[in-house]
Amino acid sequence: MPATVLTLSRGNASAIAALVASALSGIAQAAGVPTLQEVTVSTRSQDLIGVADSATEGTVTARQLANRPLLRPAEVMETIPGMVVTQHSGDGKANQYFLRGFNLDHGSDFSTQVMGMPVNMVSHAHGQGYMDLNFLIPELLGSLRYRKGVYAAEDGDFATTGAARIDYQRQLASPFVDISLGQNGYRRALAAGSGEVGGGLQLLGALELAGNDGPWQQPENLKKHNAVLRLSDGTAAKGFSLTAMAYEASWTATEHVPQRAINSGEIGRYGALSPRDGGKTHRYSLSGEWARPDQDGASRAGFYVINYGLNLFSAPSGFINGLQGDQHEQADARTVWGGQASRSWFLGPVFRDSELTAGIQLRQDRIRSVGLYRTEDRLRTDTVRQDKITETAASLLLEARTEWQPWLRSTVGLRHDEVDARVTATGGEFNLGNGGKTRAGQTSPKLGIVLGPFPLLGATEFYANWGHGFHSNDARGATSTVNPVDGGAISRVPLLVKARGSEIGMRTMPLPGWSSGLSLWQMDLASELVFIGDEGVTEPKGASRRHGLEWSNYITAAQSLIIDADVALSYARFKQASANTGGTRVPNAIPLSASLGGTLDPGGKWFGGVRLRYLGAYPLEETGQEKSSAFLLTNLKLGYRIDPRLQLTLDVLNLFDRKANDIEYWGGACTRSETLSGSCGGGIDGRLVHPLEPRTLRLSVRASF
Q: What gap in Å lies between CA 553 and CA 543, rounded to an integer?
């Protein structure tokens, strides 16, 4: 369960309050040695500057996001170098993510928290680690702090490829109303503002209403309601915040479809195999965070309570089981509560001014009902499985940072996790014999070494990192012995899956305003077990090994111009060949991705941003003979200030109207005509696609007060 471990540096009170992170920086500055800072863009940089522990961590802030064109809220995650965000269904469903040769599905190997709250859902109806970020309001983001790998003690479940921590702003420059209209029924209204309510307290509020039909022949009919209310005092380093959030969405989805159905003309490029797919979801939450530094160190604590629900209707295989269609419902209703606390101490000159941090984390998911049901036109016809789950995760962590020399510092961490789950089967003809209790623990050591900075090399630093991490498996997979679909015997799977990773890297500033990072990484995962929500069982995929190379660049060419560019190469293989195909390639593991973007805002009338993203061809099945098609996508934002309080922006998404696919799979499905002709059998293997949305224009007007 993610939590924030406090990192502070010694120095004057303002430096402490602003998170100028660590005794390492203070000592290096006292010695006259320049310190290489995290890659960050901030209008309040004194709040966010920090010393890096690896070559692949950084902070993205509000200024960088302000002029970035976005099709979906979760695309703010693409500010993480190498991260790719797509969608294979309706916009109310969690996005699909890719990073470091992993098809993260909906979040199974990347951990995200928002204002101290975990977003990934354990033992979820649709997929383990389900990470729905559609509730984000990009205009409110204050910072997105990310790190890759398994090298930090504060990162727990799902943080194998990395972790991100998103925080909203505590106050806005001025209240505003933003109205957006676009093609295909797109509409959005956002009102937000903040003000002092007495005693130095700040109250921020925002309300978002949005809808969209999309380019689909079956209108998406997305309806989204979103609200935020935040009371705060001080900063994240010295103060507190109390945040209430409420999000609801409903939609009709066009799922991925067989490419052959489009080629034959049975459906159009934006057509659907079956009607009435889609769903509804909600997320209501209350969270609080508190931090207080003192002369000996600092303390931090937080809590959260989340009420979450999802009813998802899908027919990804079309009509394999007959003309009634293969639609099913995945339903999830739960309450998640938990918190974290940590304490940091500066140990003084006797211990080389080391900083020691200890923390505890607790999370419990009380899942009232999680189920899989066969449906027709969203009406349940049969229960495949239905369960009640209580899953509790507790963690202890310890981390020590030491500067041995002005050019040598280390971070040593140790984390222990215990996960306990109780599963009670409450429905399903073959499922009632499943259930039970399961428990597992893991101790994860971490180590990081930094050499530098070396001023003669452009304030260059070199990094070496190593560590263990894990992701959890669905508790139902760890307790079930009977296949709920047909009653056949199945084997239980381990509750925790170990990951072991390492990387070496460097960061340098070859020219003023240009920060460049290079890293070589590798990752071993004990197994790629995946809980298949469509079937209610865990599917074994075997152990895997990945390695890769990443190069990221961040350039502030001028006060008004920001450029970022990154390239990510990865190599992903199963350790044992597939019994069915003899192949070792990991399906949907992207071997090459790259992005280039820039934003320009000189403070005059005109401003804007452009972003190019390249996605290389990736294997669709284990032999690698079937591959996706590579493509380049370009998005553009152009803005004009009529006066200081009134502005217009135009977003052009998929600027060159690229005819490519957001996602491609290889699997079995049947169209209606194939079932009618009797040629379907048990399904026809082939390419399954969900097309990119065509060129789309969205116009926004914002009035500030």
A: 33
Secondary structure in 3-state letters for 251-320: EECCCCEEHHHHHCCCCCCCCCCCCCCEEEEEEEEEEEEEEEEECCEEEEEEEEEEEEEEEEEECCCECC
- Determine the residue type at 375: T
Q: What is the number of H-type helices and E-type strands within the chain?
A: 6, 35
Residue 616, helix vs strand vs coil: coil
Which amino acid does the sequence have at 205?
Answer: G
Mean pLDDT of 355-376: 97
Three-state secondary structure call for residue 630: coil
For residue 623, the SS3 value is: coil
CA distance 114 to 664: 30
* Residue 624 vs residues 186, 627, 631: alpha-carbon distances, Å: 38, 6, 18
> Which tokens sit at 571?
């190599």
What element of type H or E holds 566?
A: strand 561-574
**Residue 597 CA neighbour count, 13 Å, CB half:** 31
Rounded to whole angstroms, the Cα distance separating 557 from 553 reads: 12
Tell me which DSSP letter residue 281 carries.
E
Strands 222-234, 355-376: parallel, antiparallel or unpaired by DSSP?
A: unpaired
- Identify any residues that bridge with 326 across adjacent strands, giving them in sequence order: none
Query: Angle 603-607-609 (CA atoms, 0-180°, nearest 5)?
Result: 135
Q: What is the pLDDT of residues 450-460, one digit of tens each?
A: 999 998 887 89
pLDDT digits (tens, 9 = 90+) for 232-264: 999 999 999 999 999 999 999 999 999 999 999
Among the listed residues 38, 162, 170, the one whose alpha carbon sits nearest the alpha carbon of residue 110 = 162
DSSP-assigned states of every residue in 677-692: HT--TT-EEEEEEEEP
Taking the CA atoms of the chain, what radius of gyration do you get in angstroms?
Answer: 25
CA-to-CA distance for 172 and 705, rounded, in angstroms? 11
SS3 (DSSP) at 84:
strand
Q: Where in 100-155 does DSSP place strands (E)? A: 102-103, 110-114, 117-118, 141-148
Half-sphere exposure of 70 toward its Cβ, with a 13 Å CA cutoff?
A: 21
Tell me: the pLDDT tens digits for 155-212?
999 999 999 999 999 999 999 999 999 999 999 999 999 999 988 899 999 999 999 9
